[in-house]
Write a structure and sequence with these properties.
Elements lengths: L4 H10 L3 E3 L4 E2 L3 E4 L5 E4 L5 E3 L12 E3 L61 H17 L6 E2 L1 H18 L11 H7 L7 E9 L4 H16 L7 H6 L6 E8 L4 E9 L1
Parallel strand pairs: 2-8, 7-9
Antiparallel strand pairs: 1-8, 2-5, 3-4, 5-6, 8-10, 9-10
Helix pairs in contact: 2-5
C-alpha cells in the first residue's frame, strides 16, 4: 500500500504506538512497542465508554465521552469521566432511548479468512494467527479465573473493516473519517450487544507469522501490564461482562502490524 509523505512522517514520528479503548466503552492509551522489545508509554487518544443497550435499527446507544487531549504526551490519558454528548454525529457519542436487544444465538467460531459480501476492502487475518492471539488472551483470563472469550466471526468482520481504514491512512483512531461509531459498525455486521469495548494498536514486526504473532501478543501484554487507575485496556481484556471478541491482526506494506480487538457482552 502506497503512503503519502504525511503518512510516512507519521510512521517516523509514531512508529510502534499502541492505542487502546476500554470496555463497556473504550479507553485509549498509547504504548510504544518496537521489535527490540522495549516499551514506552504515551497518551494517544481520549477514553470512551459505552454501556447501554443498542437499537439495531439505527445503531444508537448510550455513550459517554471523555475529552482528554488526543495529542501525544509522556503520561497516560486521564481517567474516563462521564458527560452527555451534545451532537448525534459523527462521534459515537449519541444518547437515545432504545429497547434492549434480543439475545443472539451461540456465536460462531469461524475465522475471518474471507471478507463478507460488501466488505471487499477488509484485510484478512490468518486463522493460525488469530488462534494464537486469542489463546494468549484467554490464557491471561484463565490466570484471573475468568472464562475464555469466544471469537465471533461477525465481530471480527467489524474489526477487520476498522483495521483496514486505519491502515489506509486514518491512523490510530476509534472512528475514522466517514466511518460510523462503534455501535453502527457492530450493528452493520449483525452483532447484538448491551456493552462494548475496543482495543487498537500497532507496532513494527517481521514478515513471518511468528513475528506477527509476537508483535500482537506483545501489544496485548503491554495492555495487561497496566496499573489502576489507567488500566482501561486491561479491564477490556479481563472483563467479566464481555463474552465475545472480534480480532483483526494485519501487517501492512511498511512492516507495521495493526491490531483491532473488539469486545461485546
Amino acid at each position: 500500500m502506497s503512503m503519502t509523505a504525511a503518512q510516512k512522517f507519521r510512521y517516523t514520528m509514531a512508529a510502534g504506538a499502541t492505542a487502546v479503548v476500554i470496555g463497556v466503552g473504550f479507553t485509549t492509551v498509547g504504548l510504544n512497542r518496537h521489535a527490540a522489545g522495549t516499551a514506552d508509554r504515551t497518551a494517544a487518544e481520549a477514553p470512551l465508554v459505552a454501556s447501554s443497550p443498542i437499537d439495531l435499527g439505527d445503531g444508537n446507544a448510550d455513550l459517554l465521552l471523555d475529552d482528554a487531549s488526543a495529542a501525544p504526551s509522556a503520561t497516560p490519558s486521564a481517567t474516563p469521566s462521564a458527560r452527555k454528548p451534545t451532537t448525534p454525529a459523527p462521534k459515537p457519542a449519541r444518547k437515545t432511548a432504545s429497547p434492549k436487544p434480543k439475545p443472539k444465538p451461540t456465536p460462531t467460531k469461524r475465522r475471518t479468512s474471507k471478507p463478507a459480501a460488501g466488505t471487499a476492502g477488509a484485510p484478512t487475518t490468518s486463522g493460525s494467527i488469530l488462534d494464537q492471539v486469542l489463546a494468549h488472551i484467554n490464557t491471561a483470563r484463565a490466570d484471573e479465573g475468568l472464562p475464555a472469550y469466544t471469537l465471533s466471526n461477525d465481530l471480527s468482520k467489524a474489526s477487520a473493516l476498522h483495521n483496514d481504514l486505519m491502515i489506509d491512512g486514518c491512523g490510530l483512531s476509534h472512528q475514522c473519517s466517514g466511518e460510523g461509531g462503534i455501535g453502527d459498525r457492530f450493528s452493520a455486521q449483525d452483532v447484538r450487544w448491551s456493552s462494548a469495548g475496543e482495543n487498537i494498536g500497532y507496532g513494527s514486526a517481521g514478515s513471518s507469522d511468528a513475528a506477527v504473532i509476537k508483535a500482537a501478543n506483545g501489544l496485548t501484554d503491554s495492555m495487561l501490564a497496566e496499573k489502576a487507575p489507567n488500566d482501561g485496556h486491561r479491564k477490556n481484556l479481563l472483563s467479566d461482562g464481555f463474552e465475545k471478541i472480534g480480532l483483526s491482526v494485519v501487517r501492512d506494506s511498511q512492516g507495521v502490524v495493526w491490531m483491532t480487538q473488539d469486545f461485546v457482552g
